Amino acid sequence: MGLTNPAAENQADEQTVVSSMSPNWVTTRLDFLTNWARANSLWPMPFGTACCAIEYMATAASRFDIARFGMERQSFSPRQADVLICAGRLPFKLAPVIRRIWDQMPQPKWSISMGACASSGGIFDNYSMVQGIDTIIPVDVYVPGCPPRPEGLMYGILLLQKKIKGETIADDSLRQEHLVGPSGLFLPPEKVDELSEPFGNSVSQTRSA
Amino acid sequence: MTAAAADARTTVSPSVAALRAEFGPAIERHLVSSGDTIVYVARERSHDALAWLRDTPSQRFDYLTDVTAVEYRDPERPLEVVYQLRALARRADLRVKVALDQAGALEVRSVVDLWHGADWLEREVYDMFGVTFTGHPDLRRILMWETYAEGYPLRKDFPLRGHFSRAEQTRQALAANPEAHYSLEELSIADSFHELPAAMRERLLRGERGYLR
């Protein structure tokens, strides 16, 4: 980028006019370039805990092949990952683990909550299960389904790419870390209770019962 | 159903008569359910009876399939600790139950000295039902984390969502140290030792499960 081609300048015939205008020069917005690069080389950090992880594996394998979207490299180290994909239910015992993995990932980073359990607790509205990983880490894209088909996850990935392409590096708040505060949560406690409202067939039990 | 099949579904295991001859009144009662013989043993003699079942040549229940517990909806009924035994050579099964009165202490002798496989199984029963296995080498929670404070999840008086609010549960979960769930032996490092609960620290310092430097 930004290099002239001296050989092209010396050749004055008609044919080289086009090549002298060839994309040796590119003008673009920095935002566009950054987002384009980021969106098309997302390295996923798979956090597979349940059946969603099987669908995730299918998505990553040859038939569906998320390498087509620049997710060639499965990053099994949070230090070299861009997008955390929580595939499956998250028990409270794993909450500090996913939190630590998220904290270890360098910015810029995004997260996908794959499936009903990761997004809302799903059918596991009980004492041991986190009711939506958004009470533990910030989430960018929720993929519904129990489990979602690979097409569903790919659609979620495309939505995340779309979201990334709309970002701007001028906005610092996008890259702000949402750490666990002195309250022990990164959300206000009322927000956590609200996000994990009882639903389904267990509404007869109140939160404080 | 043929007569032979009906017979197989109601036949009492010969181990019951042998147990009665050996332990007398400590064998409280027995019944047959779906072809499985269930024998109730008094708590005081449970370890003796299980050791006898393992070691007697005519019995040879050398494999402990499972240890679990049952609590019934009826609060009058005692909580039962269930031992599912298998004699591999004889291809025979026997289910031994020990009834624990809810009013008294939920305590029973550990059988880890008889079957090593009972180690984690008894820890699970302790974790989920709060039954104490005396003589267990390392009795601590196995599924829930060591500092879990809400009680014993599979007890009937335990609400499905737990005792605390979701926010409080989330706060406690995030405050947990993931490394503190494991013994020093499992970790092979002692980094999280000072963050373990006092009772667990004391138990680890007593030895058996790894070394502290």
CATH structural fold name of chain A: Rossmann fold
Q: Give the helix/strand class of chain A.
A: alpha/beta
What does the overall shape of chain A look like? globular
CATH architecture identity of chain A = 3-Layer(aba) Sandwich
Number of strands of chain A: 4
By CATH reckoning, the class of the domain at 3-143 in chain B would read: Alpha Beta
What composes the largest sheet of chain A?
4 strands, parallel
Order of helices and strands of chain B: HHEEHEEEEHEHHH
Q: What does the main sheet of chain B amount to?
A: 5 strands, mixed
Q: Using only CA atoms, what is the Rg of chain A?
A: 22 Å
Q: Quick check: average pLDDT of chain A?
A: 83
Low-pLDDT windows of residues of chain A: none
CATH architecture of the domain at 3-143 in chain B: 2-Layer Sandwich
CATH H-level homologous superfamily name of the domain at 3-143 in chain B: NADH:ubiquinone oxidoreductase Nqo5 subunit
Distance between the termini of chain B: 67 Å
Question: SSE layout and pairings?
Answer:
The complex is a heterodimer of chains A (209) and B (213).
Chain A: H1 6-10, H2 14-20, H3 30-39, E1 44-48, H4 51-60, E2 83-87, H5 95-104, E3 110-114, H6 115-120, E4 141-143, H7 150-165, H8 189-195
Parallel strand pairs in A: 1-2, 2-3, 3-4
Chain B: H1 3-10, H2 14-23, E1 27-33, E2 36-41, H3 46-55, E3 63-70, E4 79-87, E5 92-100, E6 107-109, H4 118-129, E7 132-134, H5 166-175, H6 184-187, H7 198-205
Parallel strand pairs in B: 2-5, 6-7
Antiparallel strand pairs in B: 1-2, 3-4, 4-5
What does this structure look like?
The complex is a heterodimer of chains A (209) and B (213). Chain A is α/β, with parallel strands linked by helices and 209 residues long. Helices cover 34% and strands 9% of the residues of chain A. Chain A is globular, with a radius of gyration of 22 Å. The termini of chain A are far apart. The model of chain A has no long low-confidence stretch (mean pLDDT 83). Chain B is α/β, with parallel strands linked by helices and 213 residues long. Chain B has a domain at 3-143: Beta Polymerase, domain 2 (2-Layer Sandwich), CATH 3.30.460. Chain B is built from seven helices and seven strands. Chain B is elongated and about 60 Å long. The A-B interface holds A 92-93, 95-97, 99-100, 125-128, 130-131, 135-136, 180, 183-185, 189-190, 192-193, 196, 198, 202, 205, 207-209 and B 143-145, 150, 153, 158-162, 165-178, 181.
